[in-house]
Write a structure and sequence with these properties.
By secondary structure, the protein is an alpha+beta fold. The protein contains 10 helices and 38 strands. Helix 3 packs parallel to helix 6 and helix 4 crosses helix 5. A hairpin with a 2-residue loop joins strand 30 and strand 31. Strands 17, 18, 21, 23, 24, 26, 28, 30, 31 and 32 form a 10-stranded antiparallel beta sheet that branches. It has a 5-stranded mixed beta sheet with strand order 1-3-5-4-2, sandwiched between helices. A 5-stranded mixed beta sheet has the order 7-14-13-9-10. It has 4 domains: 208 residues, Pathogenesis-related Protein p14a, CATH 3.40.33.10; 97 residues, Immunoglobulin-like, CATH 2.60.40; 257 residues, Jelly Rolls, CATH 2.60.120; 119 residues, no CATH class. This is SCP domain-containing protein.
Length: 709
């Protein structure tokens, strides 16, 4: 039986709490704690939300760490026997980590722990909600799988039907729905006195929805110093966590006469206040719904918020800025600089560093024009990234246009998130390139879409290039055969792109099922008249690195004269790799000048142009420039020395024969800190450098030999 599951939440109906509630504001830090040295941490998080890179690193380390919860749950219960069972410690950690993530973002102590007894009773409550297919904070004895412990837990818990684990924590923080205008679930998670909770979860089955019971009431800590708590958080806030309802809390505050204004770059943002709830559900809170806030952003988008007319003895006005940003985008790319024609002997290139980068990855490749087709067969292994949920196989044998398998995107039972896979080939389209594939639609609502998308930044952002709607609920509308598609990619000529196929519910009703009657099937994907990166070699570089050597090691084989190499660098920040920076294309050439001199005459010399192989204080490049021997610490002749007169300091010399690929120069200084260039007044191979002494009592002068690009 096919049905469209829904998600339901009820706000907590609990006795009103009394007393002054407060919180000490955490001091700002530069790098989030505990940092990437402990990516599996569950609590103790501190993040500086005024620092974009800090929030980006924190979010990308801590949020994904809980995303494998569905595979981790290991539920031991049983519906038939009303056995609530248990979930794994790893799964509970996933849920706890998500709670503490939100608290850290708003500046609250991320020190929540789960009590074992509360979690055990919440487990019984979750089973009751799922078995009864309903939610109640006061379930009756007639409820399926009723227990007293479960009823008590339900009275003290946030409850969710249709989700479990960390996803339920996300839903509580969004707190949408007509019955959640006071955002009670959010307020309990962000309660300033909270210190202990418990979680119970069941994953559902073919006929029952998953459920969560998050025990939030009781064993509160003493009231700390009051402070405002905003959601979305003040400072940089991941746009993926942005709710429709915004809120501001303050212990003991009265928002009964408060007003809220919002602006974006000086323009007023319309809004409506939907709740001014007083005590009884976490801290006192005002809730409003702004109009026109985007679901996603590319550029950082700041909103200024001012809440005035606040009563209760605390501050009467509070202003702050929420800067929505895309946590998949680093604001600065890693760009490579250096020559376009490196010698086959190797060449050093530099790149700009990024704040808080844990490491970098250099990718060197060549371009292949070989034809390719991505299919779901066992051999050759598909070059894809599977972004589907557990519960079904992406590579299905239900249908196949060629071979025995095709790619299958669907929503399995209990899953509402978008389903996708990425073709991992890095493709370089031409003006005549076409994305070609075949698809076949089965059971899916007409508001569900299958889309093909292109990314030019390694998967950081995606652009739709094709879409289709679901075939509908009647089997008579299903595609009887495969449909051929062809999409023009000429707009991406010369760029490196990746392709993604994604099935989206688009916030509407969906169908759920993993069999051959559900979802979409895709097969035989290719891009015509294109090349793709081949012979790829990657090298990890330290987080402190700012340069690398293109050589036989980083290229994967000896550099070949006339061959083109494509190089790009990406950064690892906050436990994840971000997209590559711009690709630098170079063509190897036979060594000339200094490089040929080393290869032909002194192959044992190390350290490159600026190194000092023989340790005589003269760099290898200067030894080349003046005809010295770089393996002997005793030069056969001396470096040209300056001539000092009462009015000037100068030196002149003629280049040794056969020296190419360098520029002779000189600099002068009065303090050996700041150096200025000296004009070369010589001509041809003769060089003359003179600087006036003026009023200076002492002048320093030095040679400057530069290797040409």
């Amino acid at each position: 039986m096919n049905h469209t599951p829904h998600f339901t939440r009820n706000w907590i109906k609990a006795a009103y709490l009394t007393g002054v509630v407060a919180l000490a504001l955490l001091s700002s830090v530069h790098a989030w704690e505990p940092g990437t040295d402990d990516a599996s941490a569950l609590d103790g998080f501190i993040v500086d939300t005024n620092n974009r890179r800090d929030v980006l690193a924190f979010y990308n380390c801590v949020y994904p760490a809980s995303e494998n919860y569905a595979a981790n749950i290991a539920w031991t219960g049983n519906y038939a026997s009303c056995n609530a069972g248990t979930t794994s410690p790893t799964f509970k950690d996933d849920t706890l980590r998500r709670v503490n993530l939100y608290r850290a973002l708003v500046g609250l102590p991320a020190d929540i722990s789960f009590d074992a007894t509360k979690s055990a009773h919440a487990q019984e409550a979750a089973l009751m909600m799922s078995a009864q297919r309903a939610l109640s904070h006061n379930p009756g004895t007639s409820w399926a799988c009723y227990t007293v412990n479960g009823r008590n837990a339900a009275a003290a818990s946030n409850l969710a039907l249709g989700s479990y684990g960390p996803f339920s924590i996300d839903r509580y923080m969004f707190d949408d729905g007509d019955n959640n205008i006071i955002v009670g679930h959010r307020r309990w998670i962000l309660y300033s006195r909270a210190q202990e909770m418990g979680t119970g979860d069941v994953p559902g089955d073919a006929s029952r929805l998953p459920a969560n019971s998050l025990w939030v009431i009781g064993n509160f800590k003493p009231a700390p110093t009051p402070t405002f708590v905003a959601w979305p958080n003040a400072g940089y806030s991941p746009v993926s966590l942005r709710p429709d309802r915004w809120s501001l809390s303050y212990p003991g505050a009265s928002f009964s006469s408060a007003s809220v204004t919002m602006s974006q770059n000086g323009s007023n943002v319309p809004l409506s206040i939907v709740s001014r709830s007083a005590s009884g559900v976490g801290d006192n809170t005002i809730v409003w719904e702004p109009v026109g806030i985007p679901d996603d952003v590319i550029a950082d988008t700041p909103y200024t918020v001012t809440v005035s007319g606040i009563g209760g003895g605390g501050p009467s006005t509070y202003s702050y800025t929420v800067n929505l940003f895309n946590p998949n985008i680093v604001s600065e790319q890693v760009a490579i600089t250096g020559t376009m024609t490196p010698p086959t002997s190797g060449q050093t290139f530099t790149f700009n560093s990024l704040e808080q980068a844990d490491s970098y990855e250099l990718q060197v490749s060549t371009a292949s024009a070989a034809a390719w087709t991505e299919s779901a067969e066992d051999s050759p292994t598909p070059q894809i990234i599977d972004q589907t949920s557990p519960g079904y196989d992406l590579r299905s044998n239900s249908f196949a246009r060629t071979g025995s398998k095709s790619f299958h995107l669907t929503h399995p039972s209990g899953v509402f998130s978008d389903q996708a896979f990425i073709v991992t080939r890095d493709i370089l389209p031409t003006s005549s390139s076409q994305l070609k594939f075949y698809d076949r639609g089965r059971f899916a609502t007409t508001t569900t879409t299958l889309e093909a998308e292109v990314s030019t930044d390694g998967g950081g952002t995606w652009t739709n290039v094709w879409s289709r709607n679901g075939a509908g609920l009647s089997s008579g509308n299903w595609d009887p055969t495969w449909i051929s598609r062809s999409i023009n990619l000429s707009a991406y000529e010369g760029e490196i792109i990746r392709i993604r196929f994604i099935m989206k519910g688009n916030g509407s009703s969906i169908t759920q099922g993993s069999g051959s009657s559900h979802g979409f099937f895709i097969d035989d994907i290719t891009v015509t008249n294109s090349t793709y990166l081949a012979g790829i070699t990657t090298t990890e570089l330290a987080g402190t690195a700012t340069s690398f050597e293109l050589n036989s090691t980083t290229a994967g084989s000896t550099l070949v004269e006339g061959s083109t190499y494509l190089m790009r660098v990406r950064a690892n920040i906050g436990c994840r790799w971000f997209d590559y920076g711009p690709t630098k294309s170079v063509t190897a050439q036979a060594p000339t000048g200094y490089d040929a001199w080393v290869i032909d005459e002194y192959p044992q010399v190390t350290g490159g142009f600026s190194g000092d192989h023989d340790g005589d204080g003269i760099s290898n490049g200067v030894e080349y420039a003046f005809g010295f021997v770089p393996t002997s610490s005793t030069p056969s002749t001396s470096i040209p020395q300056p001539i000092v007169t009462a009015s000037s300091v100068s030196f002149g010399y003629s280049e040794p024969s056969g020296i190419t690929g360098i520029t002779y120069g000189a600099e002068w200084s009065t303090d050996m800190v700041d150096w200025d260039p000296i004009t070369d007044t010589g001509s041809g191979g003769n060089h003359q450098f003179t600087v006036s002494r003026g009023v200076n009592t002492h002048i320093f002068i030095r040679h400057k030999i530069t290797k040409n690009p």
